[in-house]
Amino acid sequence: MRKLVLVFILLMGIVISGMAQDVKDRGYIVNVGDMAPDFEMSLMDGQKIKLSDLKGKVVMLQFTASWCGVCRKEMPFIEKEIWQINKNNDFALFGLDRDEPMEKAQKLIDATGITYPIALDDGGKIFEQYAMKNSGITRNVILNREGEIIFLTRLFNHEEFSAMKKVIEEELKR
């Protein structure tokens, strides 16, 4: 029995260190459990929103760009399976178009058919508060009602996407 407990503890240590390693390997400079860095974003319609003003809502930040094929693949799933289901709850979703002019962001919106708001991340300054400058997108950051990071994704796979949806659903029930 004692050996079994030791093996279990050893395996849990490996799993936990693997998860911690995963975030760094993905180019993030923030971690689950951190308070989200605050910023002000400019939406396509010119409206300005400060992240800290969204406290009390569950927030999803989706870092994207028109040249990102994975983003284009993921965005319709975000629209249908997250935004359309949760947009009338205490939920806020913002796509952050990384370092592109409004015209390119609009082409991305048109190509993907999304209706959730897109903000322009001029120079990638917002992105760089969350991830290393030269790391890639797509990536999603989920925040709880207090502004704490509760889930991070990188690229797009259905298992991780399903896990992210579950985290959002659970947080909205809270």
What is this structure, in a nutshell?
The chain has 174 residues and is an alpha/beta fold.
Which secondary structure elements does this structure contain, and how are they paired or packed?
Blueprint: H1 2-25, E1 40-43, E2 48-50, E3 58-64, H2 69-86, E4 91-98, H3 102-112, E5 118-121, E6 139-143, E7 149-154, H4 158-173
Instruction: Count every helix, treating DSSP H or I runs of 4 or more residues as helices.
Output: 4
Main sheet strand line-up:
2-1-5-4-3-6-7
The oligomeric state of the chains shown is single chain
Poorly predicted sequence stretches spanning 5 or more consecutive residues: 3-21
Q: Please, what is the average pLDDT? A: 89
* Portion in beta strands: 15-25%
Please tell me how large the radius of gyration is: 17 Å
- Run of helices and strands: HEEEHEHEEEH
Question: Tally of extended strands?
Answer: 7
Q: Gap between N and C termini, in Å?
A: 38 Å
Structural class: alpha/beta
